[in-house]
Amino acid sequence: MGSNLALRTLLTSTRRFPASRGPPRAVLRLASRPLSVSARCMAPYYAWEPEGPSLKTEIPGPKSKEAIAKLDKVFDTRSLNMVTDYQKSSGNYIADPDGNVLLDVYAQIASIPIGYNNPALLKAARGEDIINGIINRPALGNFPPHDWADVLESGILRVAPKGLNQVFTAMAGSDANETAYKAAFMWRRQQERGGPNVEFTEEELASSMNNSLPGASNLSILSFRTGFHGRLFGSLSTTRSKPIHKLDIPAFDWPQATFPALKYPLEEHAEENAAAEKAALDEVEHLILNYHIPPAAVIVEPIQSEGGDNHASPAFFRGLRALTKKHGVLLIVDEVQTGVGATGKFWAHEHWDLPEPPDMVTFSKKAQTAGYYFGNPELRPNKPYRQFNTWMGDPARALLFRAIINEIERLDLVRNTARVGDYLFGRLEKLAARYPGEFENLRGRGMGTFIAFDNPRRDEFLRRAKKFGINIGGSGQSAVRLRPMLIFQEHHADILIEALEKVVTTWDK
C-alpha cells in the first residue's frame, strides 16, 4: 500500500513541472525508493514523461532546419537523424526544438539505458565523486584515484559476467575491442615463448620498431561476415557490415567466417537452420587450422546488430566455445550493443548456457563507459605499459554506470525487459500476420526487446514512422531494429504497434 501511495504521489506531483527544468528534489528522493511489483506494473517508471507522442510540425521543422544549417557550416550533418532538445526529452521520449515529441525506440543507437533526464542519474551527476572525476580527470594507469578499486567493485565488476573477475576500462566500444585484440595477441605470443617470465629477445625488440617479424607478430583475429566491431583501425579490420565503413582504409589480412543466415519462423526451418550453423562452425574450424595468418582469437556478437540483426542459436555459440577451447584460440564476445539488460538477461551470452565463460567480454553503449572483462590472469600483460593509454577510461562514466546498475536493480528492469519483450513480440506477430510482406523475418523471440524485422521499403518506413511519432532505426540492408530503453513498458509497446500499423496502411497517402 505504501509503495502504491508513493507512486500515486509521484504521478500527480511530476505532471506539474516542465521537462526542461527536470524533477524537483522531493521527486528525486521519492524516485530513489523501491517500488512494489504491483506499483511497477501499474504506471510508468518515471511519471513525468509524456503520455504519448505529440507532433507540432513536420520533421525537421523550421527551428530544426535553422539549427541544421548553422551546424552544417562547422560540422558534418550528412548522417543526422534529428536535431534534439535534450532538456525537453524525458523517459522514453525524445524532443526536438520545434516542440515535436517522439517515442524513442532507437535510444541513441541502443545507448540510453534508463531514460532521458533520469532522476537517479541527475542525482548521481550532482554528487561530489562524479564532479571530482570530471574536473580532476585522472590518467588512470599512472594516477588512479585512491578509491578506484572500490568504484570498480561496486559498479562495473558487480555485474561482471560469470567467471570474469577483472576489467580493463576503455573509452568506447571500438577501443574496448581493440584493447581486447591486443590482449589476445600478447597472450598468444606469451604462450609461444613459454610463459610470462620469458624475456623478449633483442631481435624481437628491434624488429618491432620496424613493424616486422618476429617482434610484430603474424597473428589475426577471426570475425564473421556482416559483423560489426567498430571503426578504429584494428576493430575496422574485423567489421564486415557495410562497405561504407571500410572504403579507402588500410586493413589487416584477417579471416572472416560465415555467420549462419537463419530462416524464419524458426520452428518451420529447424533442419535447414541446424545445417547452416554446422556449416558455419565447420568453416570456423577450417580457418583456425588453415588460415595463413593464424587467429589468436575469434570475436562474435551475440546478435549481429549493425549487420542486420542476425541471430544464431545457443547451440551454435556453445559449438563456437568448444572449437576455440579445442584449438587454443580465445573467444571474445562483443556485448557492446547487446549488453546491460537489452535481451532480457544482463548479458546476452547468458542465454547460451555455456559450460565455461568466454575469455573476454567487451562492453559499452548502455554502460555509458567501456572496457572488457576477463578472468584468466595470463590475459594481463606481463609488463607494464603494454596495455596502456593516458585515460584508460573515465571515472565519471564508471560512477554513472554504478548509478545505472543501482536503478536497474531497484526497478528490476532486466526482468521488465524480458516481460515487455514477450508482449511486444506477440503484438508484432499479429501485425505481421495481418500485413504480409511488411514485417518479414520477425526475430528476437525470447530476447527481451532486442527485436527486428525486415521491410522491403525500410528507409521510407523509418522516415514515415516519424510522421506518426516514432523514432526508430534500421540495420543491414532491410532490417528495422527495435532498441527501446529498459524502462519501456507494455503501454509504450501499444503506442508503437498502433503507429507501425499506420505506417504500413498509409503508404500511398
TrEMBL record:
Domain of life: Eukaryota
CDD domains: OAT_like
Pfam families: Aminotran_3
Entry's EC annotation: 2.6.1.19
Keyword tags: Aminotransferase, Pyridoxal phosphate, Transferase
Cited PROSITE patterns: AA_TRANSFER_CLASS_3 (PS00600)
Cofactor section: pyridoxal 5'-phosphate
Catalytic activity: 4-aminobutanoate + 2-oxoglutarate = succinate semialdehyde + L-glutamate
NCBIfam families the UniProt entry points to: GABAtrns_euk (TIGR00699)
Record family assignment: Belongs to the class-III pyridoxal-phosphate-dependent aminotransferase family.
Protein name: 4-aminobutyrate aminotransferase
Originating organism: Phialemonium thermophilum
